[in-house]
Amino acid sequence: MANFFKNLFTRNSGLTTSQVIEKKTVISFFFFFLFMGGAIAGWTWLRRQPSDSGKTSSPIRSVLDVNEKIFDGLLSDKHLAKEYPVSQAANPARVNGDLGLKTPFDPVAWKMNVIKASGDTLKLNLDDLKKLPKTEIVFNFKCIEGWSQVTHWGGVRFSAFMKAYGLDEEAAMKYLGLSTPDKQYYVGIDMPSALHPQTLLCYELNGQPLPMNQGYPLRLIIPVKYGVKSLKRIGDMYFSNQRTPDYWSDKKGYDYYSGL
User: Fold this and answer.
1) Which pLDDT tens digit goes with each residue over 6-34?
2) Does an H or E element contain 65, and which?
3) Which CATH superfamily is domain 70-94+106-252 in?
4) Cα 170 to Cα 172: distance, rounded to the nearest angstrom
């Protein structure tokens, strides 16, 4: 066996063309099976590692945490998602899921409950939001399912909303939490991303009121993250210095940050 490996990795001088080809074929198969063995051993080791509550193994969770720190460090008000002319926006826009939208809903009775740090709750309707300056954005909405689409949204900047309602103490906290009225879907967002200038409390799509399947009457649009963070039909809004619950991170082990 020792002589076999010695001959295998020595120079090809003195060998015929067919012998050289045979030798290279053997070497190729050797490294292929070596790689496959390492990959299988690595996968087996990974599967045996303890998992967190989101069913993600500790090594993978460590990588996701490092990614979050990198993206968080790069985020700034100057880090803007690319914007497009309105003429490039899709109409109708594609829907990226219906979690939290299946429960019977009375739009007339809808209010957004903003739970302040003091425990007091602001109850706001759509007219309250429409009194604030309107902002529009056309950007490439990206879904974790693997598709993207240029879409046109209108609403109020989240940062402007926070300022208008005197939510300075809440804006200084680390995380924002949002949930649908039926509590079936919820997201957690780091506050710097929530306060990003392109983040909207959105009530229009393509210049019209949001369709029901797009989160009427009010949803979040956050272009610096994947679409799973753009919660449809906001019911409750709350704030914390601890990570707020996030559906895909808590239940499926997805990246909490979900930055682009």
Assistant:
1) 555 555 556 677 766 776 777 777 778 77
2) helix 58-74
3) Oxidoreductase, molybdopterin-binding domain (3.90.420.10)
4) 5
